[in-house]
Amino acid sequence: MKLILAMIKPNKLDEVHQELTGLGIGGMTALEVKGYGRQKGHTEKYRGAEYQIEFLPKIMILVAVNSDLTEKAVQAIAAAAKTGNIGDGKIFVLSLEEALRIRTGETGPDAI
Amino acid sequence: MKLILAMIKPNKLDEVHQELTGLGIGGMTALEVKGYGRQKGHTEKYRGAEYQIEFLPKIMILVAVNSDLTEKAVQAIAAAAKTGNIGDGKIFVLSLEEALRIRTGETGPDAI
Amino acid sequence: MKLILAMIKPNKLDEVHQELTGLGIGGMTALEVKGYGRQKGHTEKYRGAEYQIEFLPKIMILVAVNSDLTEKAVQAIAAAAKTGNIGDGKIFVLSLEEALRIRTGETGPDAI
Amino acid sequence: MKLNRKNRRPGLGFLKLLCTVYCALFTLLAPALSWAQAQSALDSGDTAWMLVATALVLFMTIPGLALFYGGLVRAKNVLSVLMQCFAITCLVSILWLVGVYSLVFDSGSGFLGGLSKMFLFHIGRTAQNGSIPEALFSMFQMTFAIITPALIIGAFAERMKFSAVLLFTGLWLVLVYAPIAHWVWGPDGWLNQMGALDFAGGMVVHISAGVAGLVSALVLGKRKGYPATPMPPHSMTLCVVGASMLWVGWFGFNAGSALAANGVASAAMVATHIAGAAAALSWMFMEWIKHGKPSVLGIVSGAVAGLALVTPGSGFVGPVGALGMGIVAGIACQWGASSLKRRFGYDDALDAFGVHGVGGFLGVILTGLFASPLLGGFQQGMTFARQLPVQFLGAVATLAYSALGTFIILQGVKALLGLRVNPEEETEGLDVSLHDERGYNF
Amino acid sequence: MKLNRKNRRPGLGFLKLLCTVYCALFTLLAPALSWAQAQSALDSGDTAWMLVATALVLFMTIPGLALFYGGLVRAKNVLSVLMQCFAITCLVSILWLVGVYSLVFDSGSGFLGGLSKMFLFHIGRTAQNGSIPEALFSMFQMTFAIITPALIIGAFAERMKFSAVLLFTGLWLVLVYAPIAHWVWGPDGWLNQMGALDFAGGMVVHISAGVAGLVSALVLGKRKGYPATPMPPHSMTLCVVGASMLWVGWFGFNAGSALAANGVASAAMVATHIAGAAAALSWMFMEWIKHGKPSVLGIVSGAVAGLALVTPGSGFVGPVGALGMGIVAGIACQWGASSLKRRFGYDDALDAFGVHGVGGFLGVILTGLFASPLLGGFQQGMTFARQLPVQFLGAVATLAYSALGTFIILQGVKALLGLRVNPEEETEGLDVSLHDERGYNF
Amino acid sequence: MKLNRKNRRPGLGFLKLLCTVYCALFTLLAPALSWAQAQSALDSGDTAWMLVATALVLFMTIPGLALFYGGLVRAKNVLSVLMQCFAITCLVSILWLVGVYSLVFDSGSGFLGGLSKMFLFHIGRTAQNGSIPEALFSMFQMTFAIITPALIIGAFAERMKFSAVLLFTGLWLVLVYAPIAHWVWGPDGWLNQMGALDFAGGMVVHISAGVAGLVSALVLGKRKGYPATPMPPHSMTLCVVGASMLWVGWFGFNAGSALAANGVASAAMVATHIAGAAAALSWMFMEWIKHGKPSVLGIVSGAVAGLALVTPGSGFVGPVGALGMGIVAGIACQWGASSLKRRFGYDDALDAFGVHGVGGFLGVILTGLFASPLLGGFQQGMTFARQLPVQFLGAVATLAYSALGTFIILQGVKALLGLRVNPEEETEGLDVSLHDERGYNF
Ligand SMILES: Nc1ncnc2c1ncn2[C@@H]1O[C@H](COP(=O)(O)OP(=O)(O)O)[C@@H](O)[C@H]1O
Ligand SMILES: Nc1ncnc2c1ncn2[C@@H]1O[C@H](COP(=O)(O)OP(=O)(O)O)[C@@H](O)[C@H]1O
Ligand SMILES: Nc1ncnc2c1ncn2[C@@H]1O[C@H](COP(=O)(O)OP(=O)(O)O)[C@@H](O)[C@H]1O
Which of D8, D62, D355, F238 is packed most tightly, with the most Cβ within 10 A? Predict the structure, then answer.
C-alpha cells in the first residue's frame, strides 16, 4: 500500500477528485495548505508597508491506495491538476505500512 | 518508530486524545481536513443553485510513536473514534526514519 | 529522497523558511495545525465556564529533499526554530519513494 | 407618561353666572376639544424621534441580537440563530398587523384588548396616539413584540427545530405576549390600572422572555455533550458587535418609550446608558476578582444585563439610581448566568434567563424603589408602601403566566411537530441539517 | 411627494388700477414674503427626521449593501466588492455636489435639469426645500444616487476591473441616473408631469439599476467556471448582517421620502416594513415547498425583494396593500433570481436584475393598483384607467433608457480601459490582483 | 435654563377698557413674547435630532471604532482592542456623570470648570441647554469624551496591559481631556473666549488624542518584531465595516454639534460628507499613483482622515471649502501614516497620530481659512488676520498640553502597574494572555 501526497492548485480539487473516483478510488482526504516554490507569490500593501507573501494557497490531497493502483492514481492526479503553468504542484509517494478502517476494524488493503 | 495518521470524526478528538494520553503518549498534532469516502456528503443550496458537498469535515491526527507502542496506539484510536456509523475514518501507519526534539536536540525514540 | 515533517512555533516560519532557502531548497509546504505536548495549553473562560485548551497553534512544514541534503535541512530547521523553551516542536523524517512535478512530469530527485 | 393638567378657575368676583355658563360650555366641549387636540397636536419633533426609535429597536433584533447570539454559538449553528431572529422578525410583524396590536392596545377587558384595530383598520395616515401618528405608535410597539420572542431563542439555541420555533413564536406571541403587554400597557390592563410601573418592558419583555427561556431550556433538555464538551463562542467579535448594537438600539427602546422627544426621553437615555455602563464594569470587576482575568464576554454581558434591568425604571429613575441599578445588574446577572445555572444544571444556552429573567425581575422591583424622589427618581407622590407591592405582584404575575403559557405551548408544539432535531442533525449542526447552508466558506 | 401650486390669476377685466397696486405691493412685499416663507417654514422636527433619514440611507450602502454583497461572493473577492461600494459612495458624492444634483432637481427641460445649482451655489444654510434646508434635501437625495450604481455591481461582481467600475459609475450617473431621476422627480420632469407615481425610487433606483445590471452581466459575460463550479457565498453571516442593515436603512429611504416627520412618513414606514416581512416569508415558504428546506439566503433575499418592490408605492399604499405586494415580491423575485436566470443563462452574479429589476418593475405597476383608496391606498382621486398606463409607460421608459445607456457606456469603457480582469487575475481573486490585499488573515 | 410660565390673570370684571388695552398690548408684545419663548422653549425637533446624534456618536465608538481598529490588528489581539473600546466607553460614562461633565461645562475658571453639576445634580428632566434638555446635552458631550481616549488606543495597540489602559484612561480623561474641552467649549474657557473656532472637536478630540497616541507609542516602544515582521490587518472586512460606521456616525458628531436640527446642522452634514468623500478619493489616487494599485485600506483611511480634518470646521465651511479640506486630508494624512512614521521609526500601530494628530492639526488651521465667507464659509465678519493666529495658538496649546499630560500620566501608570505585557504574553496574543478568550473558534 502507498500513501500519495499531492499539492495542487486550489481550483483543481474537483477535477482531481473526479479522476480518482473514475479509477474506483473511493476515499481521500484534502486540506488547505500554503505552498512555496518557483511560482512567485504576491505583494500585499497596507498603508505603504509592503509585505512579500511567498506562500501561496494550495490544496494537499492524501490518498491511500493499493500498490497496484499507485501508478495510475499518480498519473490521474497529474493529468487532472496540470495547467502547464508554474505552481502546478508536486506529487509524493510514501510507503504505507498498515491501514485500518475504524468502523469495521478491517485492516490492510481491505481498509482502503 | 512509526508515524500514525488517523482521520476521525471531528467530535471524537477529545476521546482519542484521552485514550492516547492514557497510554502515556505525550504528544500529538491535529488538524482540520476534509474527507471524502463512503459517507455521503450533503447538499448546500443558494438561491436555487444546488452544490453537492462531497468533502466532509474530519480531523486528522498525527502521532509519532515508538514501534512497540504502535499497535496499542492504533487500537486505542480505533476504539475511541468508533461510532459504528459510516464515516468513522481510517488509520494509516507509516515508518518513521528519524525524529528530533528541537528544544533539546534529542533524536530517535527519546525525541518522541 | 526524504520527506521532512516539522512542527514548529507559528512565529518561526519565516526564519525556518529563510534557512531552508539558504540551503538551496526551493520548495516547501506549510500548514496550520494544533499541537499537544509538554507545553501546557491555556484556559479559556466564558461566563464562568472554564475550557482547558490543550492543543496549541503550531505550524507544520513539509519539505521533500534529496537524501544527501536531509541532515543539513533537519539541522537548519532545528536551528532556526529553536527558542529553548518548551513547545519548540519536533522534526520527523520519512522515506520518500517517489516524487513527480506535475507541470513537467519530471520524477525522482529532479522533481523536488 | 402622565399629563398633569391643572384646572384653572376662570370665574372672578361676582360673575357667578358667567362662570357657570363657561363651565357648562367647557364641559360640553371637552370631549370635542380633546378629540380636536389629539388631531391637531401632531408634533413633528416627537414624530421624528419615534420614527428613529422604531428603526433603532428593529436594529436591536436584526442585526443586533442576531449577532450577539450568533457569535455565542458554535460555528455550525450560527445561521440557525440568524435565521430564527430574522424569521421571528417577519412572522411577528405580520401577526402584529393582523391582530396582535389590537389585542394589546385596543381597549377590551383588563386581561386582553379588543379587535377593532385589526389590520390597522381606520388608522391610516391621520389617526394619532398622543402627539404622533398612531400608525407609528403601532410600528414602535411592534418592534418590542419582535425582540421579545427573539430573546427567548437564546435558551434553546443549537437544538430546536426551525419549524417548531416558528409555531412556538406565533402561539407565544398571541397567547403570552399579547395578554401580558395588555395588562401592563393596555389602556384598561389590570396592572396598568393598579399603577404598576414598567416604562419600557421589564415585565412585558424581559421577565416574560427570560422565564419562557428557562421553561424552554427545561422542556427541551440539554444540548448533546453539555456540560462536558466545551462549547465556546465561535466568534466573540460578532458577539461584541451585537452587544454594541443592542446598547445603541436600547436608546430607542427606553428613551423611545417616552413617545416624545422631551425631557423624559432624555432622562431615560441617561438612566439607560449609566446603568449599562455600571453593570458592564461591575460584571467585569467581579469576574476579575473571582477568575483572575477580565473578559470581553463578561463586560458585554454586563452591559446587556444593566440595560435590561434598568428598562422598567428608565423613565422614572435618576442617574444615581441608574448607577445603583447597574451595579446590582452586573453582580446579580453574573450569578444568574453562572452559579445559578450550574447549581440547577439546566442548559440555558445563551443565558436568556440568567440575564433577562433575573435582570428583568430585579429591575421591576428596584423600579419601585428608585423611582421615588427620595432616591433621586421622578415619580412624584410615589410611596414605597404602595408601589413596591404592586411591582412585586406585577413581576410575579408575569413570571407565573409566562411560565405556564410557555409550558403549555411547548407541549402543543411537541405533539404537533416535535421540538428537537435528532442527534445526528445536532452533531452535524443546524445550519447544514436544517437550512442546507454554512455560515462560512473561507 | 409633489407640491401642487396653482397659479392664481388676480387681475380681472378692466381693473388696471387694482392690478397696478397689486403688482406694486407684491414687489414691495416680495423680499419680506420670501423671507417670511423661508424663515417660517423650517420645521425642526422634519429637519431632524431628514438628517437621520440621510444617515440611514448612507448606512444602507456602507456598510449595508457592501456587506450583503460582500458576503455573497467568494472570500478572494470580498474586498473588491467592499472597495467598489466605498469608492462609488465617494465618487458619486463629489459628482453630485459638482453638478448632478442640479441636473436632477434644478428645473430645466422635461428631460434634464439645469445647472444653476452646481456646487450648491447660493444654497448655503438658509435656502429651503419645503420645510427643510435645501442643503439637507440635496444630501438626502445624494444617498439615493449613491446606492443606485452600487446596486448594479452585484451583477458584474468578481470579474470587472476596478478602474472600469469607476469610469462606468461616473458616466452612468451623469448619463443615465440624472436624466431618469429628473424625469420622475425633477420639478418639470416629463414623467412627473404625467403624474407617474414613484414615491422612493422604483423606477429611478430599482428598475434603472436592475436593468443596468442585466445588461452588464450580458456584456461582461460569465465568471470563469460559471455555472459548473460552485460559487457559494463565503459568509452568509455577513450577508444576513448586510440585509438587516438594508432593512433598517430602508426606513430612511422610504419614510424619508415623505421629506417630513408626519403621517405620510409613518404610513410609508408601515408599508415598507410589512412588505419586507411578507416577502421574506413568501420567499422562504416557496423555497421550503420547492427545495424541502427554508434557507437563510432565501429569507433575507425575500426581505430585500419586498423592500425593493414596495419602494415606489410605500407612501401611497396601505398596510394590506403592502402585505399583498410583499407576497408577490417573494414569489416573483425568487423566480427572477433562479428560474429566469437559469433559463437565459446569463451570470447576474448576485441577482441585481433578478431582485431589483424584477421587483422594481412589478412595484411600479402594482403601485398603480394599490395606491387606490379602493384597495386601501391613500392616493385620493386616483383611477386605475389613468394611473396604470402611466405607471407602465414609466417602467418601460426607464427600463429601455437604462438598458440602452448602460450598453453604450459599457462599450465606451471597454474601448478605453477594458472591462474584465484577465483570467489569471480572476482565478487569483480580485482582492490580491487588483488591490494587493486580502480580506482575512486569520 | 428653566421654563418661565407667567400666570395670566384674564379679564377683570366689567373693565372693558382695560380689556381692550390688554388685548392691544398682547398684540404688540406677541412677537417679543414669542421670541422670549423661542429662547426658553424646549424644541422637540432639536431634541429629537440630539437624541439621535447621541446614539450616532456612541455608535462610532462601539461598534464603529472598535471594528475599524479591531480589524487592523492581528487575529490574536482583536478582542483586546474590542475590550479596550468597550471598557473605555463604560469607564468614561461613569466618570463623566460623577464629575467630568461639570469640570468641562460648568463655569469655573478659564482653565477648568466647577463642580456644581456633579452627578447631574439639580438637572433632572427640565433643565435646558438652549432648546434641548441639559441631560441630553450632557449625554451628547459624553459620547465625545468616550471616543477621544478610544482613539488613542490605536497607537499602543497589541502591547499595553489592560489594567494600565484603564488607569491611563481615567487619569487622562480628568487631567487632559477635561481641561482642553473646557478651554475650547466651556462657557468661560480661555480659547473659547479668544474666539478659537472648533465646531466639533478638532482640538478637543483629534489633536488631543492624536498627540497622546504619538507620546504613548514613543513611551511604550515598538511591538515585538516591528517593523521586520509583517503585521497585516487580520480582517480588512471588519475594518471597512468599522470605517463605514464611523462615517455614518460622524453625521451625529459634526451635524449634532449644531445642537439643533436646522440649517447649520445641514450645512455641517454636507461639509462632513464631502470632506470624507474627497479625502477617500485623494488618498486612493495618491496611492494608486505611488504604489500602482488602489487599496481598500487606503480609501477607508482617507475617509476617516477627511472626516477628522473637517471636524473643527464642519459648521463653518461651505461645501467647496470642505472639498478642498478633504483633498488635503487624503494627501497629508497618508504622508503622516507612512512616510512620517517610517522616517522617525516610532510604532504608532494603527496611525492614531498619523491620521488624527496630523488631520486634527491641519483641520484647525484650515478652519481659520475656509470659515471665511471669502472662501465660501459661513463665519460672517471673520478676518484671516485675527482668526488664523487664534487657530494656530489653539492647535499648539492643545498639542503641547496633551503631549505633556500624556507623558506624565504614562510615567505614573508605569510606576504603579507597568505599561507593557511581557514578551511571552505579546507573542501569545493579548486575547488569550489577558482575557482568556479567543476572537474566533471556527
Ligand atoms: N520540496 C518540496 N517539498 C514540499 N512541497 C513542495 C516542494 N516543492 C514544491 N512543493 C509544493 O509544490 C507547490 C508548487 O511548486 P512550484 O515550485 O511553485 O511549481 P512547480 O511545481 O510548477 O515547479 C508549492 O507551492 C509547494 O506547495
Ligand atoms: N483511501 C483513502 N485515503 C485517504 N483518506 C481516506 C481514504 N479513504 C477514506 N479516507 C478518509 O476516511 C474518512 C472516512 O471514510 P468513509 O469511507 O467515509 O467511512 P468509513 O471509513 O466508515 O468507511 C474519509 O472522510 C476520508 O477522510
Ligand atoms: N509524538 C508526537 N507526534 C506528533 N507530534 C508531536 C508529538 N510530540 C510532540 N508533537 C508536536 O510537537 C509540538 C511540541 O511538543 P512539546 O512536547 O510541547 O514541546 P517540546 O518539543 O519542546 O518538548 C507539539 O505541540 C506537537 O505539535
Answer: D355
